[in-house]
Amino acid sequence: MKIIAVIPARYEASRFPAKLMQMLGDKTVITTTYKNVVETELFDEVFVATDSEIIFDEIVKNGGKAVMTGQHETGSDRIAEAVQNIDCDIVINVQGDEPFLKLEPLRQLIDVFKDDDNQEISLASLKIKLTEKAEIENPNNVKVITDNNGFALYFSRSVIPFHREVSYDVSYFKHIGVYAFRKHALLQFSKLEMKPLEISEKIECIRYLEYGMKIKLIETNFIGVGIDTPEDLEKARKLI
């Protein structure tokens, strides 16, 4: 299999505009993310997919590979445009604002497809256990429930499952938005119209479920630093 990583990168972020061009040590956030992904040595190629000439030029001048795309509603749609003419089998989506993603979770996602002899899995992603009540109830944390084989049943910003039977302990998992796609499933996804559940929850991977595709979830204990606010940037600078 040929495996590539694509980093969707939008310049205008609603909560923190131009966050990917902020300095993190001696490099910008997007360049730090790009170089960290390259250094895992897991991928045949690594690209940044962006609609911003500023970000495109930043990557290219630092020796990286970038693809210009149009404007899109979701990162998956942006990646689908970027990879349609690239020869590959598996596409890993790494968020541009997650500069500290570790090697092991990425390797686990790749292994899902190596073990999928029947090629029934369209998408693999990560989940992490939540224990704090405030984190479980936070609608910014997308929760996921899976079947006994680790396939996603549903994603929601609400608390799922609902804990009605208090004498029985239940676990809650947060979905981490790092995706591994089969290329053909990703291209198919980009052609499918949004359905009511995805529109209501604003969770793009629900589109796969609404069209009957299989999503495999891998549990991880990795906690990154997603840079969504200026405060997150300061935390990341301390880690650097």
UniProtKB/TrEMBL annotation:
Domain of life of the native organism: Bacteria
UniProt cross-references to InterPro entries, sorted A to Z: Cytidylyl_trans, KdsB, Nucleotide-diphossugar_trans
SUPFAM superfamilies: Nucleotide-diphospho-sugar transferases
Molecular function terms, GO-annotated: 3-deoxy-manno-octulosonate cytidylyltransferase activity
Keyword Acyltransferase part of the UniProt annotation: no
The entry's keywords: Lipopolysaccharide biosynthesis, Nucleotidyltransferase, Transferase
GO biological process annotation, one example: lipopolysaccharide biosynthetic process
A GO cellular component entry from the record: cytosol
Protein name: 3-deoxy-manno-octulosonate cytidylyltransferase (CMP-KDO synthetase)
Organism: Chryseobacterium oleae
Lineage: Bacteria, Pseudomonadati, Bacteroidota, Flavobacteriia, Flavobacteriales
